[in-house]
Structure formats: structure tokens, C-alpha cells
Backbone:
């Protein structure tokens, strides 16, 4: 990397709380805005913030409880609250918690719970274990001043803030928030963005030496490859498919600490071997004043982004954006005047009979033209709906047959529902299948759409009938598209 990228965060920590100061743990590109949650473990504070290109505005701050153990979560049962960048994956109402765990256990979580995506990819690669980290309410008159690792809020607070706690909302858990001026906030974003742009630029221009320089010594791929093995694989692909088009947008930058940065953005990639849309996540670490990639993730988004596809079509290697300078407008090229056609003189021969050519009837409205990029998106979304409907039909039949192995084949091993992971869900369902003699599941009004976090969301009205119990409610299945196809990664139900 020719230009050394220097992190400026260390200059901005622990400044006096001036009006011009802002939280620097999360940042947006100019012109963008989103809601995020920042949890300060040492101060036991939770901030709901609106993030813009100019800084972070605090919407509400409330007191919280965190885990009994001090420091970052490492292992299951260590009673520590993890530190990192996560997102809300679902909502479990108080009633739903009672159905799942019984009234006595459910009352510990009060109003309800918002499960988080712990462990994230970097946690998993670093060997961290455990699950079931939630933002949740509190039992009335609770005396215990700490949790087993979750973040607990007063019931009134979590109820009032639930409007901001939607699926996909980023949650940054840190010991203490990084505070700096608005200028430092902008410089911090630009430093991280420059590292991302250099990575994309080197990749798109097929410059392997620059490309490999974006990676840190401790890098491991999502499937466990070492740095050298991964670079060997990427070199093979770059040699085999030297031309590619890449476009990126909707950048979000997160800092759990001054030395670790997470960059997320929408990415369109097109080469001879594939065309894909998705959400890219790059985990950076500061190594000697430069940001280096130590892990990366990509969640395919089959619905895609028409604007991004069109942008990629004309894309060139990305150059870092100046902090406060508007982009140069594209030069206007004058259109050449069409050549005038010379009229053809009629032949001198006698014309015995002249038949007028049949007039072509023009349609009242020209049919709307579909661009190749839009057609790709339409075709992909059609494929998704077909696959999703097949999955739900198979899942329903497996549930009704009470075959635990067949039923669990529709779930990802990364599945989470409340405090239950894949194994817990399997154990719970296997026990119920043994106790219940007959199950009937009716499905109405099914809808399939892309989720904000690049997953696939299926919602429908579910009518369940067992031996001694029946209910009717709205079921939400969240799917991811992995190596084995579509699989369920989370599930939610609420009474209708």
C-alpha cells in the first residue's frame, strides 16, 4: 500500500465532553443515516444513536446491567458480556418466552428479549464460545446487580426503545465509547474508507501485490484457510479471471476499540465466472499504523441492488474520496447529429398498380424496457421465491411427520432462537415429537422478501394443531443462503 493509513482515534479518546464532541464507535458515509446501539460496559450505559455523515446524535441513554465477569467474553459460562460489533436478529415477546421456557424462567426477561448475533465471524475464528446474548428486560424488584452475560434494561426502557430495536440494527458493545470532535470523526471514517477503497481498487485492477498487502498476518478465511492458503486461492482466481467489475455503496464503519475496525458495505461483483450481490464485512486490525484485514465475510443478497449493478457496469478502480470536496461531474459529450439520408428517386418504369405499404400500428404506450441488471434481479428474486416456497413446504411436511432428523435438515447449524442454538432446538423438538401423536400445520398468506441484513425473510399465518393444544399466529423464518442452499437461521412467532 503506497500511502500509509494512520488511525487517528488514539488522539481523540477521553476528551472533555464538549458540545462539538461525538461518539466515534460508529460512522456513516455522507448523505446516509441509520440507527445504532452503543453499550458502554464500564459505565453500564446504553445509547440509542442516529448515525449520519457528520456525526452521531444520541436519541436516548439508559442504565443497564451487564455480565458479572469482567473483560471480553471468551467461553461459554464465563458470565462475561462480549465486546464487538453485532446486530439484532429477532424479537422474543414476554408471551413467547413463557411458551418457550415456562412462566418462572421467562419472568427473568421481563418485557421481552432481542437476541444478538454473538458470536460473530471474528469471535468464531478466535475460538470464542457461548451463545444466547440478548438485550432484554428485567424481572420486577430484581436484586442481582449483574447478568450472566446479557445486557438488561428496565422494562419501561426496553419497551420505549423497542421502536429502534429492529432486526439488523447494529449493536456495538465496548468498555467505553470513543469520544472525539466532529473533525476527528470524519478523519476516522476517511481512514477506514481509504483502506476499503485500496482493497477494492487493487482487486478490480488485478494487482495481486497491492491486493495481498491489504491483509494482516493473523488473517483467516471464513472456512479456516490460513493467510497464505487464502492468497494462493485468490491468486489462482485473479489469473483465471483477470477482468472484473466491482461497485460498493452504503458504507458503515464500526469501532469496538481504537485498534479494531469493522467496515460493512453493499457489494456488486461481476466476472466471467459469476455475478453476485451481497453485504461485505471486512474486519480490520491496526498493524503498525496501517489497517489490515484479519477476517472477511460476504452474505449473498440475491435480490440485489439495481443502482449498484448499473454503477458497476461503468465502474473503474475506486479512488479514495476527498473528505470535503464534491465529486467532479462527468464531462458532457455532445451528441453527433444524425446523417441525413438522401431520398431515393423513383424508377422511371411505368407503374401498373401501386400498393400502399401496410401501416404499422404503434402501441399507445411503449412497453417499459428492462435493463440487463434489472432482469438479473427479477430472475434471481423469482428463483428465491420458488426455492423458499419449496423449503417451507418440505419443512411443514417434516414437522407434521414428527421426524426430527428430517425436520432439522431445514435448519442451519448457525441457527438461534432466543437462548437455544441448533443443538438446543433439536433436543427440544425431538422431545416434543416423542410426546405428541399428531401434528397439523396450516400455512396462509406467505410472503418472501429480502431482509435488511441480506437474509431472506419469509412470513406467513401459521395454524398449528397438536393433540391437546392449537394456536394461530404469524410465523417469521429468516433464511441464509449457504453452501447447502437455503437454511433457516432464526425463527419467530407471535399470536394473531
Residues:
Amino acid at each position: 500500500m503506497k500511502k500509509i493509513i494512520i488511525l487517528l482515534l488514539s488522539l481523540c479518546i477521553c476528551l472533555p465532553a464538549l458540545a462539538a464532541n461525538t461518539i466515534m464507535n460508529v460512522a456513516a458515509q455522507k448523505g446516509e443515516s441509520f440507527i445504532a446501539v452503543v453499550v458502554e460496559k464500564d459505565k453500564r450505559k446504553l445509547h440509542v444513536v442516529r448515525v449520519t455523515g457528520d456525526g452521531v446524535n444520541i436519541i436516548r441513554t439508559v442504565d443497564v446491567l451487564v455480565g458479572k465477569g469482567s473483560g471480553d467474553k471468551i467461553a461459554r459460562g464465563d458470565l462475561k458480556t462480549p465486546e464487538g460489533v453485532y446486530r439484532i436478529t429477532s424479537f422474543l415477546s414476554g408471551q413467547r418466552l413463557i411458551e418457550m421456557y415456562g412462566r418462572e424462567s421467562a419472568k427473568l426477561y421481563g418485557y421481552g428479549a432481542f437476541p444478538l448475533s454473538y458470536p460473530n465471524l471474528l469471535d468464531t475464528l478466535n475460538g470464542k464460545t457461548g451463545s444466547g446474548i440478548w438485550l432484554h428486560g428485567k424481572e420486577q424488584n430484581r436484586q442481582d446487580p449483574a447478568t450472566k452475560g446479557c445486557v438488561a434494561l428496565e422494562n419501561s426502557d426496553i419497551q420505549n426503545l423497542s421502536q429502534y430495536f429492529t432486526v439488523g440494527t447494529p449493536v456495538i458493545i465496548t468498555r467505553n465509547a470513543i469520544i472525539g470532535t466532529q473533525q476527528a470523526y470524519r478523519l476516522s471514517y476517511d481512514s477506514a474508507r481509504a483502506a476499503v477503497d485500496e482493497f477494492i481498487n487493487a482487486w478490480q485492477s488485478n494487482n495481486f501485490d497491492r491486493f495481498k498487502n491489504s491483509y494482516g498476518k493473523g488473517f483467516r478465511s471464513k472456512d479456516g484457510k490460513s493467510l497464505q492458503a487464502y492468497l494462493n486461492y485468490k491468486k489462482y482466481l485473479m489469473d483465471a479471471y483477470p477482468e472484473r467489475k466491482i461497485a460498493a455503496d452504503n458504507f458503515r464503519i464500526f469501532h469496538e476499540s481504537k485498534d479494531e475496525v469493522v467496515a460493512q458495505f453493499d457489494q456488486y461483483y461481476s466476472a466471467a465466472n459469476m455475478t453476485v450481490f451481497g453485504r461485505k464485512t471486512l474486519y480490520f486490525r491496526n498493524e503498525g499504523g496501517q489497517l489490515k484485514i484479519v477476517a472477511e465475510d460476504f452474505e449473498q443478497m440475491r435480490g440485489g441492488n439495481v443502482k449498484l449493478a448499473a454503477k458497476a457496469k461503468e465502474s473503474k478502480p475506486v479512488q479514495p474520496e476527498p473528505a470535503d470536496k464534491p465529486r467532479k461531474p462527468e464531462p458532457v459529450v455532445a451528441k453527433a447529429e444524425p446523417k441525413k439520408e438522401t431520398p431515393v428517386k423513383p424508377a422511371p418504369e411505368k407503374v401498373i398498380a401501386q400498393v400502399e405499404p401496410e401501416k404499422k400500428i404503434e402501441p399507445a404506450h411503449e412497453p417499459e424496457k428492462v435493463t440487463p441488471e434489472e432482469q438479473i434481479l427479477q430472475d434471481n428474486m423469482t428463483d428465491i421465491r420458488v426455492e423458499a416456497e419449496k423449503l417451507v413446504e418440505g419443512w411443514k411436511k417434516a414437522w407434521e411427520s414428527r421426524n426430527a432428523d428430517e425436520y432439522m435438515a431445514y435448519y442451519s447449524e448457525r441457527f438461534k432462537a432466543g437462548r437455544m442454538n441448533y443443538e438446543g432446538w433439536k433436543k427440544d423438538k425431538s422431545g416434543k415429537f416423542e410426546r405428541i401423536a399428531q401434528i397439523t400445520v396450516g400455512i396462509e398468506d406467505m410472503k418472501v422478501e429480502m431482509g435488511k441484513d441480506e437474509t431472506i425473510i419469509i412470513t406467513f399465518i401459521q395454524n398449528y394443531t397438536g393433540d391437546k393444544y392449537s394456536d394461530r399466529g404469524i410465523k417469521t423464518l429468516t433464511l441464509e443462503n449457504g453452501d447447502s442452499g437455503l437454511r433457516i437461521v432464526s425463527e419467530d412467532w407471535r399470536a394473531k
The radius of gyration is 27 Å. DSSP finds eleven helices and 22 strands in the chain. The longest strand covers residues 244-257. Residues 1-19, 321-342, 344-361 have pLDDT under 50 and may be disordered.
